[in-house]
């Protein structure tokens, strides 16, 4: 055996050694980002629960044991993920759906959700229970004090489509409230099926965990149709599904249903089995109904354009295959397929129409409200949040100087790098897929920054879309354009031994985008640990450049991509919502026992009022009490008109509204303090007229007793006292 290596062998060994160093550098930078981020977050959690004072991360970073534990867990997690993907990628890819569904089912069995219902441990005195990870978010009040409570209320209503608990009156919960119920509409709301099948706690886990797992899988498969790269598709799925935007909003059904429609269309066209095509056609008709029943046109309209364009791509590719004569690879479309499609779509449309018809009165009431009422947008107000997408990573442990983090949360997409990179790809090689996606992106950007005339907004349906809601579809398209451009850069590199100009453009673009993010960070006076955030943004820039360069240059870095996705996608995303086991902070309270004693499940004619708190009013409704000031998703005009002379205050209460009721006031009055909130002051005569028998209050109401009015204390729980009123 020759002991001497040739110059070529020495060069290869040197090259391999350099690449090992390259991989080690990528891993080290990713690990450093994760370590700092998790240290900051754990310190924030401790501050929230009062174990550490409200400081920056210095307290925890100086705690050697805490850093050691976090660091060890981070290394083990990242290293395991890298090795698992590198050596078992084919296995995971083949069985990804079985693995994903299994994970989701385990989450349902153990009742794991991302609900912020743990806030009730803080809001109710003497209540206990915290999540096993993270903190409940007070900002998610629409979730833990409205939506989740509606679902719990339905468990006391046997999931009937009409409730006398919510609003304390006959209330249609099918369409406007979006509550789980045994009705036609529930066919098109699979997220709610868990409540109907498993009950409240497991249903809550189903709505969170199953939705997230399936969304990750669907996003990966849909991205793969466009990008044709497993690691890049995985990166797209992770950065999308765990993005601050989706995690703060606690949503994602619009991309789940839309991407699933694209996948099913692909399955319908590119199958060789007639039975598979029929099943896919039926599923498409059903998912069309699911998409319509989202009832949120601000996202439905722009994403319709995106997914319709993807569907056109697949249809054109199918036609090309047929035209080329490759009939054996696909099943030719037949008249029976057309008839089956028409029949299924008509059935789905009929069921959707039936659902709308059943809830027509409630829907008409919503349309005629002051808020949300009718909407007409023409755009043009600008969208500066697009240029600060990386700052959303820090909102998990640092509150921005705005009232609502959800409104400014984005997807990490390096805007406008995707748009510029796709332009560069088009210049090098005409790609009609990229051209069409880019034109659609420019269409959205034009609406956001310039605006449309009224007629154009109407015919394009963009009048339903507030500019700020375009953060989601623009971020989605930008991330897709960016990763497609990375794949194109790799193809150009393989065709040319020299480093492609597109690779240079991508690296420079990532650097410039990161520099811009750093500039915005330094200008943001409200962010606290500025030096640490600056370090993390620099790490983000460095790892991005290294990893994308390695991918384009043809190195084996699948595991590194996973590490990148975990560090910059999963970890910040998992720090936004808590990991909640069960619903004890909501269901196992003293107040639940108190309300249950006196709420007559067979007679809702006597009403309840919660004095001074709309959140506790919803909580009592969740426990089965017919509370008149629980959130009115559509107004009870007859009730409020009955105590409002000449309907003078209808502007205040003709709206979607949380209601603060103050009892035993000298006079009746209504006051709308914000779009979705009004305060009503109720006199003794008002209470008698509204047939109120029970009042829950944190005040002593016995002082209002008189010869004509007897107020009896029935019990107390969690700082509130329940009173019975006898007229």
Strand tally: 11
Taking the alpha carbons of the first and last residues, their distance comes to 107 Å
Largest sheet: 4 strands, mixed
Share of helix, binned: 55-70%
In what order do the strands lie side by side in the largest sheet?
5-9-11-10
Task: Give the structural class.
Answer: alpha+beta
Residue share in β-strands: 5-15%
Number of helices: 29
- In the predicted model, the low-confidence regions spanning at least 5 consecutive residues are 1-15, 52-62
Describe this protein's structure.
This protein has 727 residues and is α+β, with helices and mostly antiparallel strands. It has 29 helices and 11 strands. The chain has helices spanning 7-48, 58-61, 64-94, 96-109, 120-123, 141-155, 193-198, 200-227, 230-241, 244-249, 253-269, 274-292, 297-324, 335-358, 360-367, 405-408, 417-428, 432-449, 454-459, 471-495, 501-523, 530-552, 558-574, 584-587, 590-598, 614-622, 637-643, 650-653, 684-689; strands at 112-113, 162-163, 171-172, 580-581, 607-610, 658-663, 669-674, 677-682, 692-697, 710-717, 720-726. It has a 4-stranded mixed beta sheet with strand order 5-9-11-10. α4 runs antiparallel to α8 (200-227) and α8 crosses α11 (253-269). It is globular. The chain starts with 6 loop residues before the first helix and ends with a strand.
